[in-house]
Amino acid sequence: MTNPAVQPPASAYFITPEKEATEARTLAVLVDNEPGVLARVIGMFSGRGYNIESLTVSETEHEKHLSRITIVTRGAPHVIEQLKSQLDRIVPVHRVVDLTTSAGATGESRPIERELAIVKVAGHGEKRVEALRLADVFRAKVVDSSIEHFVFEITGRPSKLDKFVALMAPLGLVEICRTGVAALSRGKEGM
């Protein structure tokens, strides 16, 4: 008969590995505006099994043929550092800036982040009135309407858009289109 007060030694098989906390990071990547560059940058993330939560890209300097890619991803700090150094090694990449950490290093607050969403809501009666009232509170503009629906345009931090969409869901949310995050660091320094 075994003594219930005496426990056998813990097996290494039952020890769960500690997972490092993940955090959202906003990366700005300045690249040559050439065919295939975006695919190479995105392929680096997918090849390593990392998701991109938001992606925006556009030519920013027409004469120099440069584009800026803004990527929001999530990972452990050391993994993000590895991703940044691997991005830096891709030939058409000129510069990689972690806007999230560069803001903290200069004493400034988080980067300025904005996103645009177009939100379609269909409803009648009180739900229609409530959708208009909430749109006013969130400073969303009506860009299309009929007696059966509204299409709102809203800009702001991603968290603001998330709240607006959540409030519109029970009021007849039909469809959402979001642009992805555009971000700049605060202060006088540029990329």
Automatic annotation (TrEMBL):
The keyword Transferase applies. Its EC number is 2.2.1.6. GO terms for cellular component: cytosol. GO terms for molecular function: acetolactate synthase activity; acetolactate synthase regulator activity. Residues 26-101 form the ACT domain. InterPro entries: Acetalactate_synth_ssu, Acetolactate_synth/TF_NikR_C, Acetolactate_synth_ssu_C, ACT-like_dom_sf, ACT_dom, AHAS_ACT, AHAS_small-like_ACT. PROSITE patterns: ACT. It holds the Pfam family ALS_ss_C. It catalyses: 2 pyruvate + H(+) = (2S)-2-acetolactate + CO2. Keywords: Amino-acid biosynthesis, Branched-chain amino acid biosynthesis, Transferase. Catalyzes the conversion of 2 pyruvate molecules into acetolactate in the first common step of the biosynthetic pathway of the branched-amino acids such as leucine, isoleucine, and valine. Belongs to the acetolactate synthase small subunit family. Dimer of large and small chains. This is Acetolactate synthase small subunit. It comes from Jiella endophytica. The gene is ilvN.
